[in-house]
Amino acid sequence: MVRLEGVAKHYPPDIVALQDLNLAIAKGEFVFLTGPSGAGKSTLLKLLFCAERPTQGEIFVDGIPLASLSASQVPHLRRKIGVVFQDFKLLTNRRVFDNVALSLEVTGLKRDQVERRVRQILDSVGLGGRIGQLPHQLSGGEQQRVAIARAVVNRPPILLADEPTGNLDRARTDEVMALMEELNAQGTTILFATHNERLYRHTHRRVLRLVDGRVEE
Ligand SMILES: Nc1ncnc2c1ncn2[C@@H]1O[C@H](COP(=O)(O)OP(=O)(O)OP(=O)(O)O)[C@@H](O)[C@H]1O
């Protein structure tokens, strides 16, 4: 589902964020990405959804060579990829419903289909009753569950998570992890960046550790 071959990313003037990265993530895997601050975790995720382009090397997502994509084709790639961030990035002046619906409306679904899908996904993350509220009326954990619902409402095969539990307490973190497990059980390939060793220590999941821009398993 994801393949990197000899990937490097440099930022000007002389920062080497990633170097000679080779890795493959199979369809349906749930892989953790860890490593110290500044190791390049966010950079790696950004390369996968074309928010950054590699300085060297090739990246394939679901068989698509990303180097071949023009700027106008990037939105098509992004429909395959859900992304969740530490700071949720919800639209603060839009209701929970709209935050989730926006990512479906761009796909051209009819209004009643959008409404049905949004209700369904919000029910599945336990927020069916909060559909008309604004983000600030929700707790941090609830806001993150809205962000996850938004990321997966159009059923992308891949979910990228960049420290999604970084702002959450232990109980809320466990709720988010349970949701991730559920999405993975339904077939979503997940790449989950985190500093929190507790989240992967006792799992059987593969853990990729970035150190100085290189990957160790
Ligand atoms: N847009 C940018 N311009 C210049 N340097 C950048 C840029 N983005 C990231 N960097 C640098 O690249 C390196 C990797 O950063 P990145 O954010 O990928 O690390 P990270 O592992 O996600 O860190 P953290 O755990 O603190 O979020 C760091 O040295 C960072 O300062």
TrEMBL record:
<feature type="domain" description="ABC transporter">
    <location>
        <begin position="2"/>
        <end position="217"/>
    </location>
</feature>
<dbReference type="InterPro" id="IPR015854">
    <property type="entry name" value="ABC_transpr_LolD-like"/>
</dbReference>
<dbReference type="Pfam" id="PF00005">
    <property type="entry name" value="ABC_tran"/>
</dbReference>
<dbReference type="GO" id="GO:0022857">
    <property type="term" value="F:transmembrane transporter activity"/>
</dbReference>
<comment type="function">
    <text>Part of the ABC transporter FtsEX involved in cellular division.</text>
</comment>
<dbReference type="GO" id="GO:0016887">
    <property type="term" value="F:ATP hydrolysis activity"/>
</dbReference>
<dbReference type="GO" id="GO:0051301">
    <property type="term" value="P:cell division"/>
</dbReference>
<keyword id="KW-1003">Cell membrane</keyword>
<keyword id="KW-0131">Cell cycle</keyword>
<comment type="subunit">
    <text>Homodimer. Forms a membrane-associated complex with FtsX.</text>
</comment>
<dbReference type="InterPro" id="IPR005286">
    <property type="entry name" value="Cell_div_FtsE"/>
</dbReference>
<keyword id="KW-0472">Membrane</keyword>
<keyword id="KW-0067">ATP-binding</keyword>
<keyword id="KW-0132">Cell division</keyword>
<dbReference type="GO" id="GO:0005886">
    <property type="term" value="C:plasma membrane"/>
</dbReference>
<dbReference type="InterPro" id="IPR003593">
    <property type="entry name" value="AAA+_ATPase"/>
</dbReference>
<dbReference type="GO" id="GO:0005524">
    <property type="term" value="F:ATP binding"/>
</dbReference>
<protein>
    <recommendedName>
        <fullName>Cell division ATP-binding protein FtsE</fullName>
    </recommendedName>
</protein>
<dbReference type="InterPro" id="IPR027417">
    <property type="entry name" value="P-loop_NTPase"/>
</dbReference>
<comment type="similarity">
    <text>Belongs to the ABC transporter superfamily.</text>
</comment>
<dbReference type="InterPro" id="IPR017871">
    <property type="entry name" value="ABC_transporter-like_CS"/>
</dbReference>
<keyword id="KW-0547">Nucleotide-binding</keyword>
<dbReference type="InterPro" id="IPR003439">
    <property type="entry name" value="ABC_transporter-like_ATP-bd"/>
</dbReference>
